[in-house]
Amino acid sequence: MRIGGKPYRTIWVGDDGWTAVVIDQTRLPFEFTLRELRTLEQAAEAITTMVVRGAPLIGVTAAYGVALAMHADSSDAALLQAVETLGRTRPTAVNLHWALARMKSVLAAVPAAERVACACQEAQLIADEDVECCAAIGRHGLAILRGIADQRDGEPLRVLTHCNAGWLATVDWGTALAPVYAAHEAGIPLHVYVDETRPRNQGASLTAFELGAHGVPHTVIVDNAGGHLMQHGLVDLCIVGSDRTTARGDVANKIGTYLKALAARDNGIPFYVALPFSTIDWSLTDGVAGIPIEERSQREVTHLTGRAADGTLTEVQVTAPGSPAANPAFDVTPARLVTGLITERGVAPASTAGLAALYPERSRSP
Ligand code: MRU
Predict the structure, then answer these.
(1) Torsion angles phi and psi, residue 319, rounded to 5
(2) So what CATH class is 2-129?
(3) What is the 3-state secondary structure (H, E, C) of 32-70?
(4) Which residues line ligand 1 (CB under 6 A)?
(5) pLDDT tens digits, 35-68
């Protein structure tokens, strides 16, 4: 995607041929700052502190993290330690474990002397595949958006999204926003309602930033406004991303997604989830019981970061001093509330049969 007219991915290899360069998402939307990751520890820290975030990008960064580790030490022990260290960074997005398992299996099969080159190559391949997947999700999602837009008599299609599942959450294009960008480029008039997405405000800061940079009309709303807008006929469809989708189509995504799905169901509004294959956890069926939900720091709830009048980034407290806070970062939307899963292979019902039809090679027999 373009920032100031210049095309960017969210992660790339620097001029030295091995450093990973990322956009520091903790500084957006007010500062566009690049960070160089030169060590395994820096890659792990970038994921933990959410310099990079979003399920697909977490996976790709972990892959580059393994490559950085191999650059320092390409022994078997270093490979295992890299996979273990990166695997502990964030628990919910299964793309992390998918990418690490792939790196481990590819690298374990080659001699230590070949691992640096091989790791760089594989990380690059994972990044490129993510871009292809997201572009395909955009094409499949476009057909859905076009179908609903056709019923709007030329009035803008009104899409509600939660969190950031745009190009910043992936390597390029995004998952939930890929169809939005495709529709925008196809000339379909649309307007995106962006949930602010407390506590970290990925909607207000990241989704609004990238939609604005791309010229897509949008309005930021507080998280609790979605149900009201839906009741008043102001939302035509919801699209969100996913951090882990089970074999039967239960979907973990940013906290608050489940409530939007309930409101959408109550109001007869289609609720789509867009995800690449690397987000599917074939080992799980019941998402509520099985998907690990990250519990993050209380401080993300008790404090907010924003730009002060003098332009500096400032943190302020918003809760009563001493009040404890809880911060579950994700929730699970059961498959029965999901209208369809938009993947790189096409759109499927959120069900065991639906996913099995799209991925016959991966699905388990019932
Ligand atoms: O905590 P985050 O910012 O990593 O959470 C991101 C989300 O929940 C996204 O919606 C999800 O990763 C889908 S991304 C394409």
Answers:
(1) -110, 160
(2) mainly alpha
(3) CCEEEECCHHHHHHHHHCCCCCCHHHHHHHHHHHHHHHH
(4) 53-56, 93, 163, 165, 169-170, 174-175, 202, 241-243, 253-254, 329
(5) 999 999 999 999 999 999 999 999 999 999 999 9
In the reported structure, the alpha carbon of residue 76 is separated from the centroid of ligand 1 by a whole-number distance in angstroms of: 32
Percentage of the chain modeled with pLDDT above 70: 99
Instruction: Give distance in angstroms: CA of 19 to centre of ligand 1.
Output: 24
- What architecture does CATH give domain 141-362? 3-Layer(aba) Sandwich (3.40)
How large is the average pLDDT for residues 144-168? 97
Best residue among 131, 164, 281 to mutate for probing ligand 1's pocket (most ligand atoms within 8 Å of CB) is: 164
Rounded to 10 deg, the angle between the 76-87 and 94-108 helix axes is 180
Integer-rounded Cα radius of gyration of the chain? 20
Q: Which atom of ligand 1 is nearest to the CA of 274?
A: 15
364: confidence class by pLDDT, cuts 50, 70, 90: low
Q: Which amino acid is residue 103, in one-letter code?
A: M
DSSP state of 243: S
Instruction: Give kind and range of the element (H or E) at residue 346.
Output: strand 346-348
Residue nearest to atom 6 of ligand 1 (CA): 54
Task: Report the SS3 class of residue 302.
Answer: helix
Provide the annotated active-site residues.
243
Q: Which two tokens stand for residue 309?
A: 């009048």
From the CA of 206, give the closest atom in ligand 1: 3
279 touches 55 (CB < 8 A) = yes
Q: Is the pLDDT of residue 111 over 90?
A: yes
Cα–ligand 1 centroid distance for 175 (angstroms):
10
Round to whole Å and give the CA distance between 287 and 102: 23
Question: Does residue 136 contact residue 235 with C-beta atoms inside 8 Å?
Answer: no
Please report where in the chains the tokens 């799980």 appear, as a residue.
284
- End-to-end alpha-carbon separation of the chain, Å? 41
306-342: per-residue pLDDT in tens? 999 999 999 999 999 999 999 999 999 999 999 999 9
User: Which residues make up the CATH 1.20.120.420 domain(s) of the chain?
Assistant: 2-129
Residues 6+ apart with CB under 8 A from 76: 108, 112
Q: Which residue has the tokens 């080992």?
A: 283
Give CATH 3.40.50.10470 domain extents, the chain.
141-362
Per-residue confidence (pLDDT) for residue 363, from 0 to 100:
66
